[in-house]
Amino acid sequence: YPSEFLMQKITEDNQIPVHLHVSVSLQYVAGLKGNALVEFFHGNIAEVENEELRHLMWSSVLFYKTPNAEVMACVLLSTKAIYFLLDDSFIHADEHQSDFWNKENSDCENSSFHLSCCFALKLNDLQSVNVGLFDQYFRITGRSADHIVTCLTRDSYNTHTFIQQLMAVLSLLARTPSPEPVDKDFYSEFGSKTTGKMENYELVHSSRVKFIYPNEEEIGDLAFLVAEKMDGLTNLQSLNILLYVLAFQVNHVEGSAQNTSSLQPKTLILTSSDLFLFDEDYISYPLPEFAKEPPKRDKYQLADGRRIRDLDRVLMGYQTYPQALTFVFDDVQNQDLMQNLTLDHFGE
C-alpha cells in the first residue's frame, strides 16, 4: 500500500473544479501529488495508523445542521472513515455553528498560517446513503443530526465512483451479519400493504448500511409539482421531464473591485414546454428517523419559470466544462429573468 494505480488515480482526482473558489489551505492540498498526498493524509488527517486512503473527491457539501451553507470540501475516503476537509472561513461564516464546530484555534487568525478543519464520519457510524435523482448528489446519514452530510457532486460519474468505492470499503468492515432474509416475492419486498405504493428501491449492504435509490414515483411527484406551477392548461399525462440537472445561476455583481460573478445553486428542470429553476432542499429529505418535525421549507421552491416558446436564443460560452449557457427570452411582459413568482407568472 498504496499501489501505483491508486497513487495515480488519487493524484488525477485531486483537482478543484475551476468554477469554485477555495481558501489557500485547500489550494495547498490540491497542489499535492502522489506520495506527498498520502503522507499528508497520514500525517494530518488519519486517526489510526493502519488506515488506508482509498478515494479522493472534490465536491460541494451541505451539513444538516447548516442547510443554507454550501461549502467546498476535499472528501477523503479511507478504510475507517469519510473525512471532509473544509476551509476555516466556513466555521466563521455563520455564528449559529459555534455549537457544531469547536473554535479552538482562533489564535492562528493573524498569522500566515492557513487553517483547515476536518469533519470525520466513521464508517462504523454510517447507517444509510440516499442517492439523489439522476445521481446528481448523495446524502450520507450517521447516528445523529451532526452526522448527516450531502455531497453535491453535480456529476453522475463522480457519484457512481464514490458509491462504488464506499461499498468496497464497507465490505472490509467486520460487523455481525444480519439474519438470513426470508425469501420474499417482489411485491411483498417493495410494496406497502396498506397503501399499495412502491417504496424507494433499497439495497442493504453486507455491512448493514442501506443504499437507497429514488424510484419512478419521485419523478411522478416532481412532474405533478411542475404541472401545478404551469398555466394549468397542461395535461399531466403529456408532461414529460426531459432534463433534471443541478446547476448554478450566475448573478453578475457590478461595482466590486473586479466585476465578479456569484453562483447561486439551482435545480434546472426542462419539460417539453417550459424551463424551470427551483431552489431544492438537498439535505432534509427524506426525513431522518430522529426528525421530530418536518423541515421548515418544501423540497422544491420555484425560483423562476419560462415558456420555451418565449426563448429567443441560447448563448454558449467557449470555455471547457462547466459550460456557461445564457438563455435570452423574448417575453415583453416580464422584463427581467428573476422576478417575484408569488404572482401568477403566466396570468395577466
From TrEMBL:
Protein origin, superkingdom: Eukaryota
Pfam families reported in the protein's UniProt record: PH_NISCH_C (PF25625), PH_PLEKHM2 (PF23142)
InterPro entries for this protein: PH_domain-containing_M2 (IPR053015), PH_NISCH_C (IPR057714), PH_PLEKHM2 (IPR057288)
Listed GO MF terms: kinesin binding
Principal cellular location given in the protein's record: cytoplasm
Residue ranges annotated for the Nischarin C-terminal PH domain, each copy included: 241-347
This protein's GO CC annotations: endosome membrane
GO annotation (BP), single: Golgi organization
Protein name per Swiss-Prot or TrEMBL: NISCH protein
Organism of derivation: Steatornis caripensis (Oilbird)
Lineage, top ranks: Eukaryota, Metazoa, Chordata, Craniata, Vertebrata
